[in-house]
Specification:
Blueprint lengths: L60 H11 L7 H30 L19
Bound molecules: zinc ion (ZN).
Length: about 130
């Protein structure tokens, strides 16, 4: 049976790392919801795993591009798609206005009526 103990370089850890007392670790010290100081052990940044602060997001252009690609699903909200939809709506609106104008001009016209023999019943030039 292999002996596990403090005989190896003064450490009882299998990897040989020095034994530290977790009680001596630096404390977070952030203000908790109770109003007291957080007692969790601090990380390199001085705060604990809960109070380390929010992510500041991608900084490099590669990181920003990677995030952008990760969120891309259909492209429906891409700049190009939004611009195309806006232009299409404007074109439809222009067509609607043109159609309304044509309909209005037709409404002003009087129908030309003929009887069964092909004789003009009403003259549209007469009011
Ligand atoms: Zn904390």
């Amino acid at each position: 049976m292999k002996k596990i103990g403090p005989a190896i370089s003064g450490s009882w850890l299998k990897n040989g790392n020095p034994v530290g007392n977790p009680q001596n670790a630096l404390r977070c010290g952030a203000k908790t919801r109770r109003g007291t100081l957080c007692q969790s052990s601090a990380m390199k940044n001085g705060r604990c795993r809960m109070h380390g602060g929010a992510s500041t997001g991608a900084r490099t252009p590669e990181g920003i591009e990677r995030i952008r690609k990760a969120h891309w699903k259909t492209g429906y909200f891409s700049k190009q798609a939004i611009t195309e939809r806006r232009e299409h709506r404007a074109a439809c609106q222009r067509a609607d206005f043109a159609l309304a104008a044509i309909k209005a001009s037709f409404r002003k016209l009087k129908p030309i009526l003929f009887d069964q023999d092909g004789n003009l019943v009403n003259d549209p030039n007469e009011s």
